[in-house]
Amino acid sequence: MRDRLAFSKGVREKEGKGERDFCEREKGRKGERGIKNISPSHPLTLSPFRPLALSLILLLALLPSMTARAQFGGLTKTGMSAATFLSIEVGPRAKAMGGAFTGRADDASALYWNPSGLAHLQNNTLIASHAEWLADINFDFIGIALPVEGFGTLGASITSLTMPEMRVRTVLQPEGTGELFNASDLAIGLSYARALTGRFAIGANFKYIRQKIYNSTAQTIAFDFGGLFRSEFRGLSFGMSISNFGGDMKLDGTDTQVEVDISPNEFGNNDRVFANLETEDFQLPLTLRMGIAMDLIQTMPNRLTVAVDGVVPNDNAQYLNVGAEYAFRDLLALRAGYRTLFLEDSEEGLTLGVGFHYELFANTALGVDYSFTDFGILENVHEVALIIAF
Q1: Average pLDDT along the chain, 390 residues, taken 10 residues at a time
Q2: Are 352 and 93 in contact (CB under 8 A)?
Q3: Rounded to an integer, what distance in angstroms lies between the CA atom of residue 281 and that of residue 82?
Q4: What are the backbone dihedrals phi and psi of residue 91, each rounded to the nearest 5 degrees, phi first?
Q5: What angle do CA 310, 316, 322 make, to 5 degrees?
Q6: Domain 49-248+283-389, CATH
Q7: Can you tell me the distance from the alpha carbon of 67 to that of 72, in angstroms, rounded to the nearest whole number?
Q8: DSSP string of 97-119?
Q9: What is the C-alpha to C-alpha distance for residues 128 and 7, in angstroms, rounded to an integer?
Q10: Domain residue spans in the chain?
Q11: What residues does 204 pair with on adjacent strands?
């Protein structure tokens, strides 16, 4: 009897021990699985790709509607949008690379190209650029990016397009009435970007936009959105952005006021009734960009980066921008690119540029960038920028 009891006790102890071993093994497996899920370096990690996939799905969903808006009946809607100064690209570095910068966006000009790129900046950065645009038009941009630890990156920018005063002309006075007028465009933006993981970041801009000509003004607000994913393979990165998503613009002001006779056949009525001419609404130049960039050479002191951007505007046909940047010790950079590939009747093409960057102090660096853009039968455009990181 005692033997049978001892045997039963031994079986129960073995069973209990087996259960404990099993539970411990299960805990170990769960712990291992938990570490794998949160580790950004594990090859099976999927978490950084999920927001990227969602962003791609959203942007691809917008692509057909944007294409339909850009092309109607086989014709492109060229010249059918307002505030086209928003389509003038910012930053000599990006311009010299042919405008293929959405997938790189690693300096303060990301304020324009892809606001999510601001999340990866390590220092406060100020950029100020000036371009002698076509027809004696001045195009200026100033922006600042301020990383805030634990919060993200804040940014602000001002884009301005101005031109010299011109004479007011009428049918009866084609040489001028003696009056002068001017026209100008302005955009003021606030930005925020945040890295969701070590590889994926998102960002957005809020913009106030105003256009003014003589005594008439049009204004609205708009938003930009962007995402940027960086891999560990040769600096390979993917970026996407949608720009100028906002309300329509409509000119209004004293220039639209006229005096009319509402009853010309009625004797004795008031023949000088004030009225306003009705002006049409125009859409903003909504633009979708998708870009990819990769470092073909990553051996100190040399780096060679190539990039491609696909651009889908709502006021033209789709096209590609391609570019490259060679950097020596991050002190000297040579750049080249080509714009608007596959776009018919485009005057844009070859782009070239150079950049110099020098570290002044431990946490302060100064940079100067220059770009040249070929506009075919139109005048070439030169742009220069000053960049300060502090």
Answers
A1: 42 45 42 32 39 49 48 63 93 96 95 96 96 92 96 97 91 89 95 94 97 93 96 91 95 86 77 84 94 91 94 91 94 95 88 94 92 91 96
A2: no
A3: 9
A4: 95, 120
A5: 25
A6: 2.40.160.60
A7: 9
A8: TTT--TTT--STTHHHH-GGGGG
A9: 87
A10: 49-248+283-389, 254-279
A11: 192, 225
- Are residues 112 and 141 in contact, defined by beta-carbon separation less than 8 angstroms? yes
Question: Which residues on adjacent β-strands are paired with residue 161?
Answer: 139, 185
Q: What is the C-alpha separation between 208 and 219, in angstroms, rounded? A: 8
Q: Is 388 left (phi over 0), alpha (psi -120 to 50) or beta?
A: beta
Q: Which residues contact 161 (CB under 8 A, 6 or more apart)?
A: 85, 88, 133, 137, 138, 139, 140, 184, 185, 186
Chain centroid, CA 29 distance in Å: 44
Q: Which two tokens stand for residue 21?
A: 């071993």
Rounded to whole angstroms, how far apart are CA atoms 321 and 337? 8
What's the half-sphere exposure (Cβ side, CA atoms, 13 Å) at 24? 6
Structure tokens at 159: 């884009």
pLDDT tens, residue by residue, 111-142: 999 999 999 999 999 999 999 998 889 999 99
Taking only the tens place, the pLDDT of each residue in 85-99 is 999 999 999 999 999
In angstroms, the CA 236 to CA 325 distance is: 14
Q: Which amino acid type is present at position 4?
A: R
